[in-house]
Each structure stands twice: as C-alpha cells, then as structure tokens.
Amino acid sequence: MNKSRMDYVKAKAILFPSIILLAIFVYGFIGWSIRTSFSKWDGIIPNYDFAGLENYLYVFSTPRFQQDLLNTLFFTIFFLLLCIGMGLFIANLLDKRLKGTNIFQTLFLFPFAISFVVTGVVWRWIFNPTVGINALLQKIGINVTWGWYTDPTQIGGFHVALVAVFIAAAWQFTGYTMAMFLAGMRGISEDIYEAAHIDGANDRQIFWKIKVPLLRPIILSALIVLGHISLKIFDLVYTMTGPGPAFATDMPGIYMFETTFRGNHYAEGAVISVVMLAMVAVVIVPYLYSSFRKER
What we know:
mainly alpha; MetI-like fold; 13 helices; 1% strand; flat
C-alpha cells in the first residue's frame, strides 16, 4: 500500500467514529422525531400507532402555534434588519481607523461572547417596567410607563412586547456582523478607494457604490447564519420573557418545550420540532447547495 493510500485509509478511520455518532445522534433522532410526529403518542407511555396527518392538522389549527409563526416572522425580519444595518454602520465607522478603534471593536464584539441565557436575564432586568430603564428615565425627569415585554398591545398581528426581544437579540449579534463586515472592508484594496476619491466620490458614495456591493457575499452569509438562529430561537426568549402576555413573545421552540416536556404531548411536540427543522432547512439547504456547486 502506497503512502497516499495509507493516508486516505487513516483519514477515513479517524473520521469513522464521528460519522457514526453523527448518523445516530443527529440524523437518527431527526428520523425518530419525524416518526413520532406521525404517531399517537400522547402521554408518558410511548404509542407509535400511525396517526397520519392528524397531529399536523391539529397543531397548525391551534391559535398559539399560528401566533408563534407570526412572531417568528416578525422577529426574523427585525432581527436581521437591526443586525445587518447596525453592523454595516458600525463597521463603516471603525473602517475609518479613528482614534480608539481597537477599543470599540472589542466593546462591540464582547456581547457575542455571552450566552443567550445571560443576555436574556440581563435585558429582562433592563426592561423591567418598574426597576429598569423606565425607572432610570423617570429619575432624570422623563415619565415613561411603557411595559416593554409586558405590554399586551397588538398592532395588526404584531405584538409590541416583541420590541424588547428584538433589541436584546440585536445587541448580542450586532458585534458579530460588525466583525464580518469590518474584515471585508479591510480586505478591499486601497487602490479602489483612491480611484474613487480621484473621481470625486464622497464617503457616502464610496459606502453605497463600493463597499456594500463588494460585501454582498459576506452579507448573504450573515443573513443565512442569523436567519437560522432566529428561526430556532429559544433560550433568549425563554429566560427574558417566556411566552409573554397572550403569547405576545412566544416562539415555536418554547411551545415545543412546554408541549413535550411539561404537557407530555410527545407527538404534538415532535410536529413542532419537525416544522422548525423544515423552516431552518428552507434557509440553509439552498445556501449549502449553491456553495457545493461553486466548489466543484
């Protein structure tokens, strides 16, 4: 056996245990969840009798799940807009290499190192209607009575309580997008900027006509990463607000957790998890397919 063949065999031998574990604990459990979603398992004792689409029809007909899907849509849209918009804005400022840039880079990136659980606990206190930001504003003479995540107000299907969740989530991930965009901007040749300045372009034109177009692949990658995070969000919302008043801040992940592990409705919980998987797959699979095609 030649050396290249031996290296190939060693590589496969090293990867084989990981492949087995991946097949069992990822794809195996995905298959088990799909099977459970079509069963009559309702209670602690398993029951795998085939139920057809009965569980799916029931879950999709529940007002809570319908509201969860709507909340996920609103959360995803505003979360992406805030993270991408603020990330581009901050990265563009830091790209000017002003004094103290390195310090601000660290400050903006620091929240990304914190877990969603910690973020949820901290922002739950900040948006507490009685002791948080409202109390601070009242001390300086601004009378604010907004309930933040306790506000039950609804505007055309949009719950105002979600605003607090948008802010907390964007605070944590804006530094991530800032770092990605800043790295991309620093990779743009200075010759391009110099040519633009010679042609009379100002900073705003350079940003929109040069930086943003060249950053499109990075922006797409950020949208994919943040999109799949927003679709399966659980820990931040659960620790910060829970389902909220009238399910104002409820998400499919919370509904799945409570249905499965508190209500013992395993078939219904499996349906919700399969729907969440499908939503994430809609975002991830086309991107992966496109990436694999480019690599060939």
